[in-house]
Amino acid sequence: MLFFALFVVLSVGQPRDLTLKECPYTSKSPDINVNNIFVYDDKDKKSVSFTLVITSNKELTKAGLSFSADSFIMQQYTGHIDIQTVDLIFAIGKEGKIEKGVHTLKIEVPYSQLSTVASYVLTFDISYGDEQLRSCVNVDYRASPSSN
C-alpha cells in the first residue's frame, strides 16, 4: 500500500499543521473529510493532542472515525496501534446528525501509547454509509525520554 507522507519533527510548545494526502482508498468527492490536522505536544499532560478540522458537505446521520498508527523503527515495520474510534454523530453532531459545515475534533494520545524511538504513519479513517474516506499522514514523532 502506498502512503503519501510528511515527515515532521514535533517541538515542544508549538502546534504544527500537518499536510494531508489522500490514501489510496479515498472515495471520489467525499461528503465528509479531514481538511487539517494540528498537533501539539503537551508535556504537562504527558500527551500529544491532535486537533482535526473536518468539513461535511451535507447533513449526515451516520459517521465514524477510526484513528490508528503503524509504527516503524529504522524503516522496519514494528506494529499497528488502534488509537481511538469515535462516533462522529456523538462527538461533533447535534440532535443526531452532523450539520453541513466545518467542525473540530480533539483527540489526546498519552505518551505511553507512543514509543520514544518509532516513526508513525497515522491513519484517520472516516466512514459514513457505504463509503469510506481515508486521510493519511506520517508523523516522525519521538516523545522525550523523560515523558514516559
Can you characterise this structure?
- The protein is mainly β.
- The strands form two sheets. It has a five-stranded antiparallel beta sheet with strand order 2-9-8-5-6. A four-stranded antiparallel beta sheet has the order 1-3-4-7, with no helix packed on it.
- It contains one helix and nine strands, in the order E-E-E-E-E-E-H-E-E-E.
- Helices cover 3% and strands 52% of the residues.
- A hairpin with a 2-residue loop joins strand 5 and strand 6 (76-87).
- This is MD-2-related lipid-recognition domain-containing protein.
Q: Return residue spans where pLDDT drops below 50 for at least 5 consecutive residues.
A: 1-12
What is the second-level CATH architecture? Answer: Sandwich
- The backbone outline, from C-alpha atoms, is globular
Strand content is over 45%
Output the structural class.
Answer: mainly beta
Largest sheet: spatial strand order: 2-9-8-5-6
| Computed CA radius of gyration, to the nearest angstrom | 15 Å
Report mean pLDDT, rounded to a whole number: 78
Strand tally is 9
Distance between the termini: 32 Å
CATH fold naming: Immunoglobulin-like
Q: Quick one: biggest sheet?
A: 5 strands, antiparallel
Helical content, roughly? Answer: under 10%
Our count of domains comes out at 1
- CATH class, anyone? Mainly Beta
Quaternary organisation: single chain
The succession of helices and strands, N to C, reads EEEEEEHEEE
Total helical segments: 1
Please give a handful of descriptors for the protein shown.
five-stranded antiparallel β-sheet, disordered N terminus, single chain, 148 residues, 3% helix, four-stranded antiparallel β-sheet, mainly beta, 1 helix, Immunoglobulin-like, 9 strands
